Amino acid sequence: MGDDGTAIGDxxxxxxxxxxxxxxxxxxxxxxxxxxPIKLRGLTVRNRIWLPPMCMYSAFNRDGKPTPFHYQHxxxxxxxxxxxxxxxxxxxxxxxxxxxxxxxxWNDDQLEAWRWIVDDIKGTGASVGIQLNHxxxxxxxxxxxxxxxxxxxxxxxGGWQTMAPSPIPFGHYRTPHELGVNGIHAxxxxxxxxxxxxxxxxxxxxxxxxxxxxxxxxxxxxxxxERTDEYGGDLxxxxxxxxxxxxxxxxxxxxxxxxxxxxxxxxxxxxGWDLDQTVETSRVLREHGxxxxxxxxxxxxxxxxxxxxxxxxxxFSQQIREKADxxxxxxxxxxxxxQAEKILRSHQCDVVEIGRAALRDPYWPLRAASKLSVPADxxxxxxxxxxxxx
Length: 390
Ligand SMILES: Cc1cc2nc3c(=O)[nH]c(=O)nc-3n(C[C@H](O)[C@H](O)[C@H](O)COP(=O)(O)O)c2cc1C
Prior knowledge:
- By secondary structure, this protein is α/β, with parallel strands linked by helices.
- It has helices at residues 24-29, 68-79, 108-123, 181-201, 215-220, 235-238, 240-252, 275-287, 314-324, 337-345, 356-360, 364-371; strands at residues 38-40, 43-45, 49-51, 84-91, 127-133, 141-143, 147-152, 163-164, 177-178, 205-210, 259-264, 292-296, 328-331, 351-353.
- The chain has one domain (40-306, 320-325): Aldolase class I (TIM Barrel, Alpha-Beta Barrel).
- It is built from 12 helices and 14 strands.
- The protein binds flavin mononucleotide (FMN).
């Protein structure tokens, strides 16, 4: 069944009513699927063009608090017509930050700093989610603001000891300490508490970052998890941390609030995480109350060749959608309105995410509406901007 109550095989358009003409004429009048709402639990998102989480590394005071830069960045894109803004990877603890300049939600000052951003995103009619993350062995790295990009920040410059399922480093990064079971339980609680703060800050969707080789993905993946206790070994053991985090968050947030998980559908490396394990895990996540899988790839192995080209991750989305019977997103070099519309119409996903193209054009959805002949009064313009419609 589709998210909007239609059978998955019948998502392109409502069946013509009796007396209504089918065929080309009917097709022409149809609202592009990009601009149809999608309902997840109690949340109706105004369209299917979503902003994926993108780290801005701009909490320059190293206090995890979003700044006026974040306000401008997110609210601009909400005004640009995105249906859902997913705020960037947000650390659940100081040691879970990818870099010292990451935003976080491990204290109430951070909660308050998010609130005005969240309020004004919602004021535009967009929905707003947040991606919660712990970077594990990929924490304590540099960024454009402090240097040491793609390497560990030295201890005497504010770096810290990293933690992971097993003491295996990522590429040339610092070797992590192996987490004990108490440490794992503490991290589950940190995810739960961050989710609770997100609800208080006004976010209407939570996404767990289980992709790109960060902590949860390190547990999932046999290449980075060599544990012999209940958090390692077979797939059930390796997914235990993720399932515990899902359960803890689901119990904490309102029943009508959607919960998403971002996964890497493959490592692109032999012997590692792959599509079959992703499908199996997605089925379990569905049983535990996850509402959509946000499908990406890669991040565990430092030196792999990824066949990057337009739509390169879309087949993974389609497979997960079909085999795990879950709504999914598609992301990765989707840059053109007709390209995005075609992916949706061919039932390969339920929403598309526009990342880098949105960094160069915050009005991507409004431009897409024009390209797809959506009248300005049906496009997600702020009322103040209608006179300037494309
Ligand atoms: C600047 C930047 C920061 C990113 N940060 C995150 C992040 O915080 N969390 C995440 O899951 N993916 C992150 N990504 C990946 C994007 O969400 C997206 O999956 C990727 O850019 C591919 O989509 P695109 O081709 O439309 O850009 C980031 C990408 C970029 C370009």
